[in-house]
Amino acid sequence: MKLAVFEWKGAHHVGVVSDKEGTVTRLDMPSDMITEAGVTSLIGRTMPASKEVLALSDVNLLAPVPRPRRNIFCVGKNYFDHAHEFASSGFDSSAAKGAIPEAPIIFSKVPECVVRGGDPIRIDTSVSNAIDYEAELAVIIGKGGRNITKEDAMSHVWGYTIVNDITARDLQGKHSQWLIGKSQDSFCPMGPWAVTADDVDLADTTVKCWVNDEIRQDSNTKLLIFDVPTIIAALSNGLTLQPGDVIATGTPAGVGIGFKPPKYLAAGDVVRVEISGIGTLENPVEAY
Ligand code: MG
After folding, report:
1. Ligand 1 geometric centre to CA of 21 (Å)
2. Ligand 1 mean position to 85 CA, how many Å?
3. Which of 71, 129, 157, 246 is most buried per CB count within 10 Å?
4. Rounded to whole angstroms, what are the CA distances from 34 to 159, 186, 266?
């Protein structure tokens, strides 16, 4: 089931999307979909009542978690081919330990950098001249927990969405810690909606990214170094995960830094990320 948060008649709502029909059916529930109450009402037998059926073209989709309650957790270097391209880029402050991490590399992005599909990725050339895209599957946690085992991890997953983990490579290298290069304003496009966990097959989900009409990334979640249960087990190790937490699982090869010379984003570009079973997240790039 695809669930969207959207703006309609001046208010925020949640609805079930039929992308085939081009419609969203509004649900009788609060607009903060990913909360303890919201998630509970969407799991099992207590599906909220359906209201109006609206054309997707008549509503404004928001990110499925428009303003996460806390930082978005992210995994770095989680596909073998990307780990190698990044380690050889010269910007990888974690490269001293080798290209392939022995444990998941976890960093975060501040919640305020989330934007929706269609919103511009803003680039400020007075701050960075090395702004890159990273197509990623993102996990949305439905049931919180601490010290979650790999075996139990999937029962904590509510659903998935798409995140474009936009990165200022020069800041990522300069500051050693990745937060500032990953958290610039507008650097977390998310959407177009969420898909419940039962509708995504992690063993075979394609992750693709185009810049303008050029395909740059073309991979599959079956190639993750650390799979979703391993990520959840590692992240919840002494840190209590909460409903609504978003975990971006890492990007495959083909980011701008992987090309020689690098292909960074520039004003006028359009970045399109497509994940099978979820949909398409497209954002233009604009200068300040
Ligand atoms: Mg990333």
Report:
1. 32
2. 13
3. 246
4. 10, 21, 33
